[in-house]
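Typical record was shown:
=====
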Amino acid sequence: SGNYYNQGEIRKKELEQSCCALGIPASDVTVIDHRDLPDNPAVEWDPQLVATIVLEHIEANNINLVVTFDAGGVSGHANHISLYTAVRYKYCCFEILILFLCAGCRVFVLESVNLFRKYISFLDIPISCLLPRDALFILTEEETEQAKRAMWCHRSQLLWFRRLYVLFSRYMVVNSLRLL
C-alpha cells in the first residue's frame, strides 16, 4: 500500500490521481495492503505469496498481458525485484504455465539498463532500436507529457533523484521489453 515512512494513505490517493492522469479509473486500481508485503526498498517479499496474489488477480480480472520488472527491478528496489521473482516463480510452475498458455496470457519484463542509458532520455531511442528486444514502446511527445503529469502526482515520493528521473529518464520516453 506504499506505507514506507507511514505514508500509505497519502500514497494511495497519489496513485489514484496518477492513474486518473493516465485515464485509468479508480475502480480499475487494486491496492494490496498485506502485512507480509511491506513497502521497503530493502525487503524482499516472499515469491510464493506475491505469486499467489498476482495469479488470483489475473484469474479474477481475465488478464491476458502482464508487464513487470526484470531481475534488476529497473532501480534495484528489492520490492520491484520481488515482483519479477514472483511472476517468474509462478510462470515456471506447471499450473500457471497451463493458465497462461490456455488464456493466451503473455508476460513481458521491463528491461533494466545501465545508469548512463537510464538518464539520457530520448537519446536512448537509437540505442534501444539497435538492441534485441521483444517489444519496444516509444512514447510520443504528448504521451511523455502525460506520463510526466502522472509521475508528478506522486508528490510524497518526489525526492531529488526521482525528480531527475521524471525529467531525464529514458523510461519516460522509451521502454524495451522481453518476453518471460
